[in-house]
Specification:
Oligomer: single chain
Helix content: over 70%
Number of helices: 22
Number of strands: 2
Number of domains: 2
Radius of gyration: 36 Å
Length: about 550
Amino acid sequence: MTKPSLALLLLLWACNPVTSHGFMTSSADIQRAARQSQHLTTAKAAPTATSLVPNQLVHISVNAGGDMQSVTELLFMDADEREEDASNPKQLLDFLDASALSSPTLALHELLDRMAQGLKSAKSKTEQFLSLVAQMSNARLVGIASGILVIVLFLAFAYFRCSEEKGESPVPEAKVVSAVVPSEVCGAPNVHSIRAHLDWYLLAIACLALCDLLLNILMGVKLWGVWGIEWGWACVAALLFMTIDVVMKNCFFLPLRRCLLHRSGFTPSEVQEIDGPRWHLDDHWLENLIADPLRKHWTQVIDAACRKGGHLWVGLSNYVVLVPLVIGADRATEAAIGGSFIVFVTLSLRCAAIWRFRGEKDLWRWRHLTFLFGAGDRIRDGRLGHLNILISSMASSWGRLACLAIVHLGLPSEKKNKDLWHLSIMLVSLPVVVGDALGELIGTPFGLHTFQVRGLGEINMKSIEGCIAVLVGSLVPCLLVVSFNKDLQLQASTKIGLPCVLALLTTATETLSFRGTDNFFIPVVNSAAVVAWWAILES
């Protein structure tokens, strides 16, 4: 580009009112003007036209606010046209004044066009991203997520054990009552280490709940596509689960626990401490609370009735009534999305409440905040009661995700095999709902032959009577489901053998798993057993 053409281009840009008011000229306009400017310098034009047009251009650009595109189009006309227009300067000025009047409208149209192109480009890139995500392997996603969860649980277990072996110094001691057997408070992780890193634990739990929701959605998109998922039923499932779990359970079992505690001789301040976050309490709070043997017995009964009573209510309502009969077994994916959304919301609210109001000065707020937990925080877990119920809820949600992925990988499609999916849901869910609940309902108040286990609580004990209750509570419901099944033609070995295998696996998993994580391992192991049994004997 020659120097005259470059100077003319800079003059056009400086005199243009669009750029002078702060609106940047696009690169396309600049390149077009440069090409036309070079064409002007190389074209053969009459001397009068060439000398006339720049002077008029400067006058119009400064005084009339001419549009750059209109001026350059007029400036770079053919030579004959420029000769004709140059012979009548007044006509040229009138034309440029008219084009200047329309320059705001042209600029507005150009701006709207560019915005529309930007939106189209963003929409196209978003669709490409979603398509790429949907093409990812479902098994790989679930495998990565399950591996991350297992690693987190393992690291937490190792951290608790190392902290306990270190024997970090406790807070100043309160009064000590020797009525509690010291071995009952063994097997608990170091509370002070957990309290020092509580913010990180709460953040990790909320992030894992969000990952669970996203993985459920991605799995549904991978299986059925974005529009193949019945999003209306997912919303209905979320509303039903919220009604059953958050509203009905919490509003019934929490007042029941308060009533039973008052009738058992607990003072109002002690009930307030039980409902509160408990992190501000001293090391001997639980020992002093259940020092009286009668109080200890009533604490066991109240824990079993309110905690596992709510567990039974939610599990039977969701997996025996809502999913098979109301939502439909052929909409298991939609039910999982709705359930994971409710778990994410409730866990986030619980973590936020503990993070913001865990001091002694905030104890009065927990008269209402404790409805978020609904008597699920066991009294005998002591100061770790809230953290235990958070881990249990997260493990249950991840267990449902892993179970659904395993069943999808091993069984035919739920849309075409509704009866098979109905049976599988019942066989996988009933042991963790009924068997696990009976283990605590019978083993806690009536267990005589106890043994110590690892867990997230200040008292981690199980009994042989409770293990037998888990076995019976898992075997009988599975036998009834298989016996009353009329839709599928099952072999005799399946009707007897599969319930026995599931009952034994449930008992072993519930006994050996870290307390608070059995809601994850029981459905995962049972779903793998159902898929393997079907693939080997029934396919």
